[in-house]
Amino acid sequence: MLKLRAAIVAEADRADAGPEQRLVIELASDKRGGARRPAIADLALVGPAEVGDEVIVNVQALDLGLGSGGFDIVHVNLTRGLEGGDDRASPPPAHVMKLNYTSLQHAIAPVEDRALELPLGGAVAVLALHGQLAGLAWAFAQSTPGAKLGYVQTEGGALPGGHSRTVRALRERGLLAGHITAGASFGGEGEAITTAGAIHHGLHALGWDAAVCGPGPGIVGSSSSLGHGGMVALDSAHVALALGCPTLLVARLSSSDERRRHRGISHHTLTVLDLLLEPVTVALPAGMRSPVGAELRAGLGAVFGGAMPNQPAQGRLALSFEGDREGVERPARIARHDWRRATVDLPAYAASGLPAETMGRGLAGDPLFVAAALAGGSALAELAGDGDGGGERSEPEEPGEQDA
Q: Beta strand pairing status for 178-182 and 149-154?
């Protein structure tokens, strides 16, 4: 059930500072008095709030202590939000509902093009996490100055398009040419019913040279192999391939994640690579220790379960990876992809001032995570055909075998 509570707005940021308004509220049910909680209001859905307003907030995420939900969310403003709003916010032909059959359903005008033009040809990168977006966009721009890169926000993380400060920063710097929210995601500069429609519109109608698809901030997760937001990458990659787009999967890498299943190449990425029906391109950062060494066994175990055998088995490739003296068998379905090494410039990215954090770790705390995003941007530029992208192609059957 929804966990809704009445509250009073104690502090309110300016309502014109962005698509979301940051608030501090006091719960009416807090008998201690004076206990304040952070909250956000999506201005397009519930309008602006002022100090003293009576609001209803959803407190579920903050009460659960979720890492990506450290605030309450305004469900309705009782003081000024019950008069129907401004119809100009949804001008004709807004006729398609998003968040349909929920109390927050609202009409949008979909961007889907009437004519289907295939193959599209423009390159598409697929993210595992929103934290990869800034690094990829920056590296793409460095490799292909003037090229237009658009962002398609999918499910898997935050659904409101206005929740990402990263998107706002990239748009202000000209590193993103546009932002379309697809599926259940909403609030972008354009609204698409499907990810396919969003990619097609961006590349065909808006003239994007390349597109990047991925979830909003945060990620839905569980301890299961398939129950996490990273699985959206599987759907996005299949859509891009079906549209005839050269497709890149940006690997989720980490050098310091406390969870072993996410160190080296995350089990999220390995699962998607195993399940994909067709091969895609995967970039690894050159000049850094290979992420598929000693940690590969743990990652594969998370995907396939059980101990990985040391002797070749049918349908597997027996490969030895640096850092693993016993050798690790890499399933042929993962090795079939087009693995590439791409040069990255971590100091230059650090100097850009763009976001470089994941799970509370900065660039110095997890350089491999940021390097993977930069490698993805460089490789995407290569696929887009607007520059060499700094990529160095490697043999598909030997990803990471060298000290990359």
A: parallel
How many helices (H) and strands (E) the chain has is answered by 11, 20
**SS3 at position 342:** strand
Q: Measured on CA atoms in the order 115, 116, 119, 120, is the torsion positive or negative? A: positive
CA dist 94 and 296 (Å) reads 49
pTM above 0.85, yes or no: no
* DSSP conformational letter for 63: H
Q: Is 12 helix (H, G, I), strand (E, B) or coil?
A: strand
Nearest to 137 by CA among 159, 165, 169: 169
Could you report the per-residue pLDDT of 165-214, keeping only the tens digit for each?
999 999 999 999 999 999 999 999 999 999 999 999 999 999 999 999 99
CATH class of 4-77: mainly beta
Q: Between 296-304 and 267-275, two packed helices, what is the crossing angle to 10 degrees? A: 60
* Each residue's pLDDT tens digit, 69-105: 689 999 999 998 776 555 545 555 788 999 999 988 9
DSSP code at position 142: H
Domain ranges of the chain: 4-77, 123-393
Pick 254 or 364 by higher pLDDT.
Answer: 254
Q: How far apart are CA 280 and CA 282, in angstroms?
A: 7
Token pair 């490739």 in the structure block, residue: 317
Query: 391 pLDDT exceeds 60?
Result: no
Nearest-CA neighbor of 194 among 104, 110, 272? 110
The residue type at 108:
I
Do 60 and 82 form a contact (C-beta atoms < 8 A)? Answer: no
Distance of CA 53 to the CA centre of its chain: 34
Phi, psi (deg, nearest 5) at residue 347: -60, -40
